[in-house]
Amino acid sequence: MSRLDCNIEAIEPVTLNGPPILADRDLMSPYVWREPDGRFGIMVRAVPRLGTELIDTGLIWAGWSRDGRSFDMLDAPSIVPGPDEPESGGVEDPTVLRMEDGSYVVYYTGVASDHAHGEMFYASGPSVDALVKQGIALASTKSMGNTKEATVSRAADGTWRLFYEYAADNASRVGLATGQGVAGPWTEQPTPFEPRDDSWDNWHLSTGPLLMDEPDRPIMFYNGATHDARWRIGWVAFDRYCRTVVDRCIQPLLTPPPVDDRTATDIAFAASVVLEDRKIWLYYSLEDRKLSRALVRRA
């Protein structure tokens, strides 16, 4: 198989038009998908701005767009914290599946009231404004804490793959599990890839979106960081079963623009990828407060 390469051809801001409560928040984790009618859907985490009262760690808001750049958001959030304690502190990191019958399944992180512990939950419903919480999708354990950041795909044999981020040994790691349906139960698989010594991703790893248009070589646009949590976006290519790495970037695909203040938030974090007329659009957040998308060229 030939050597893979990915490059950024263009970067565009992503804007949301919505009610004042949304406009007053920072934005993270833009999960974007295409509808059969050509519209772009989005679910995003809306976070209290730095310096304001931390009421919650996030609300999840949905909206629609025709061009994939400017989204008209709903009047109210689609997923809110609570009422149960395990997710009373906030909701984060939406991942949207549009099912064959037109309904939706949304994986998300539920954060406890201490704002320090969370695990992966899911909700489902006939539309993004009529979701019903279904409970825990993947629980945290003593060795696998804070399960979150779901990336979900269906294999050719009908089984499901769930990539996720978890906490272990004071670092973020990527795990993989397989199941018979969107609700699991999930069976742990070998770790799909590890941090690399003396590299930009030598400490933290987090899941990112899968590009599945070439089934024999799926590509994950993953998130990696050094010990000081300066996050960058890279890519890793798998075999068709997503169990063996066949290629991986050397340098980051996407790095945040330079800032004058070294103490400023220095994060680029991939959330979703969309194909539009053979164009690859990678959606991500910058500085944990604003949204962008990048046009990726695959060589």
Give the gist of this structure.
The chain has 299 residues and is mostly beta strands. Helix content is 1%, strand content 52%.
Give a structural overview.
By secondary structure, this protein is mainly beta. The protein folds into two domains: 11-139, Tachylectin-2, Chain A, CATH 2.115.10.20; 143-286, Glycosyl hydrolase domain, family 43 (Tachylectin-2, Chain A). The chain is 1% helix and 52% strand. It has one helix and 21 strands. The chain has one helix spanning 20-23; strands at 6-17, 25-34, 40-48, 59-65, 70-73, 90-98, 104-111, 118-125, 132-138, 145-154, 160-168, 171-179, 187-188, 204-206, 210-211, 219-225, 231-238, 245-248, 268-276, 279-286, 290-298. The strands form four sheets. An eight-stranded mixed β-sheet has the order 2-3-4-5-1-21-20-19. Strand 12 (171-179) and strand 13 form a beta hairpin. It is globular, with a radius of gyration of 18 Å.
